[in-house]
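Support reply, case 0932

Customer input (verbatim):
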Amino acid sequence: MCGIAGEIAFRGTRADSEAVSRMTAALAERGPDGHGQWSGGWVGLGHRRLKVIDLSEAGAQPMVDEDRGLSIVFNGCIYNHRELRQQLRDDYEFRSTSDTEVILAAYDRWGEDFVDHLVGMFAIALVDRAREQVVLARDRLGIKPLYLAQVGRRLRFASTLPALVAAGGADTSIDDVALHHYLSWHSIVPAPRTILSGVTKLPPATVRVVEACGRTRDRVYWQPDYIRRAEHARWAPEDWQQAVHEALRTAVARRLVADVPVGVLLSGGLDSSLLVALLAEAGRQHLSTFSIGFDAAGDRAGDEFSYSDLVAEAFGTDHHRLHITTTDLPVAVQDTVAAMTEPMTSHDVTAFHLLSAAVSAHVKVVQSGQGADEVFAGYAYHQAAAAVPRNTALDTFIAAFTDHDRTGLAGILAPDRLPPGDPSRALMAEHLAAPGAETALDAVLRLDTHLLMADDPVKRVDSMTMAFGLEARVPFLDQDLVELAAACPPELKTARSGKGVLKDLGRSILPAEVVDRPKGYFPVPALCHLEEPILGMVREALRAPEARRRGLFRTETVEDLLAQPNARHAPTGPNVLWQLGLLEMWLQRHGVG
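Our regenerated output:
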């Protein structure tokens, strides 16, 4: 786990080692245990290391195999690296016990198809000097990020967007289509776009080969079908529950692969509680668990300690509570904005930032329950999709998920910032209409899991944990579990108000109070109901000279919102003033746009 950076200079130029150094330095928080840099003339690589597997210097990066002409930087973890090592040892002489070296051996054996053999989360940049190409790859669910920027005849890549900006030269103007997405979908900007015109993201499950001449080619190497399979035709609900239990048990066990202790972020909800129960089932003792809570604000409670305490007591964990007072929040919000690799409006980003700061003092690796709602239909808009025909998936999803429609955006955005047509709706239509999804709910779950999720909960957790050199692993996004869930009958997932098959599993291994409780979220009440001093931070950002110069929003709309800061919420819930203010705070903090 770490941060990676690099530059590919196309024929006739050399990689700028100073630019690589600046990017690598900007990633220091992601990898506090070591750093390195390598130059191959037309390619430069940088790396910041968090020691999790092979703690010796033999596992350091960039890793170079001179005999085969291969060099690599890698962010993530390959959970099946030990099994692959056994499979490859006859053809490759290993010098370390790291998963990084296993990737080199896998590429040597299988070429560009090496990713098909990897089980894990990863962003990889591998230089093949003999073939004069660089292979960039991102894991199946987009858990590990990889940002790219074309600067003249150079292609730069890094684990965060601000690292690319730190190198200089990237186009940091605002992408108006991305801005449309940001305001339409609670700050989600799906790959390949980012909020900046000159920075893109490698999409999940993608291998991109970049040749020395500048030519590129992509391969999407994984996309499960959301259809019923013949082998499951005779399965009863009990068979599905047993299969999910086994797959989740495997997913949790895979994410214990480490040379350091592994803890759990325990919210007290169904998903994280299941992880604790399965780890206890596997015989893990004295497991470290961590929960966070805040002061209440208005009618909003600020913690769910009663549930997390119940689970911790039931399974005998070494439990840690963190309570944050409202007076601590202003500095925390500022630090959170600084840590965001892209602007994210969800109020629980600050919660994860604070929780990660506390957890990193105890462990380097945690498991987290993110992804279960998207994979197993845990949200209200999934219920809506389950009740309509396949050909109405688009309208149903748009009605339930969109923050602002075209008319609403016209009242928020400056006229010259409103792109023609409705690009957000068009993107949704393209993905929802694609073949390989049997029902409207199947189409929506596929959209959620493979397009939106990587730039919502996944990005949120990766950004905040890695800001403190903490590795977060997400068992509900195990590739085999996701494939199983994709084939699961929709009615089993939406049963009992959502995640029915998981709730049935929970009833067999968890305290009943945890399973049958109302659905909870990571509450940060002071960011839902804006008051001073946080309101003052928003006001200052939206009235700053940079904001006026940028001119993203209608001035009269901004002033109306500031006059009544809690009067206007999007139909899906977000405070509209917070959506606008957070974007400006992020742009100003990172000096872009």
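We compared this against your earlier run and they match. Two observations from our side: The longest strand covers residues 70-78. The longest helix spans residues 237-254. Please reopen the case if you see a mismatch on your end.
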